[in-house]
């Protein structure tokens, strides 16, 4: 489904839940660090070829995909012996907004809608991005799945988030770039669940989603 400005009735929405990586921020930063920087550092540490290091790391990642460990810097530091936070900090210059995300945040800030970040990002990752982008000043609240000890793929995350925020699922919009997360949100009963098609500016669009999709936010809100 292609997004259109009439696709969402904003009169029916009170709360906007926003993912960070690949939704508000360009996923190129995270992909570059995890796909290139971490394997290169691991290869040096373990005296492996880059290809061998990447194969080993990606096999480990596949085993914990969708779990809280998958997103944990502490977990990957224990698994690899690398300072994962420092590797991310070294490349923080690559952190930036995706498409027209900053303009969308400005519009949300000027509206009566409540804007809440709901992310799987590790707290260390959040701190780095906060120091560069100041996201906490642009939204009402920020929650990491680490706050609830379970990822957004898990129904317990949504139950705990609702308990904290008191949002009405039937008056809520959620935006994310990960299909399994969107599926979990839809299962929880969130009214509007939207897929971000192109989270990484340096890569092509993701496969088609069963959920309505957008490339840029101005496709769904009445921007001036």
Main attributes of the structure:
disordered N terminus; single chain; 41% helix; 2 domains; globular; Rossmann fold
Question: What can you tell me about this protein's structure?
Answer:
This protein has 224 residues and is an alpha/beta fold. It has 2 domains: 141 residues, Rossmann fold, CATH 3.40.50.1000; 65 residues, no CATH class. It has 8 helices and 6 strands; from the N terminus they run E-H-H-H-H-H-E-H-E-H-E-H-E-E. Strands 3-2-1-4-5-6 form a 6-stranded parallel sheet, with helices on both faces. Helix 1 packs across helix 2. The longest helix is centred in the first third of the chain and has 19 residues. The radius of gyration is 18 Å and the shape is globular. The N terminus is likely disordered.
Indicate the low-confidence ranges by residue numbers.
1-6
What fold name stands as the CATH topology of the largest domain? Answer: Rossmann fold
For the record, the CATH class of the largest domain is Alpha Beta
Question: In whole angstroms, how far apart are the ends?
Answer: 24 Å
Secondary-structure-derived class: alpha/beta
Overall pLDDT metric: 94
In total, the number of domains comes to 2
What order do the helices and strands come in, and which of them pair?
Blueprint: E1 15-18, H1 28-46, H2 50-64, H3 73-80, H4 84-90, H5 101-110, E2 114-119, H6 123-133, E3 141-144, H7 155-165, E4 172-176, H8 179-188, E5 192-196, E6 213-214
Parallel strand pairs: 1-2, 1-4, 2-3, 4-5, 5-6
Brief sketch in words of this structure:
By secondary structure, this protein is α/β, with parallel strands linked by helices.
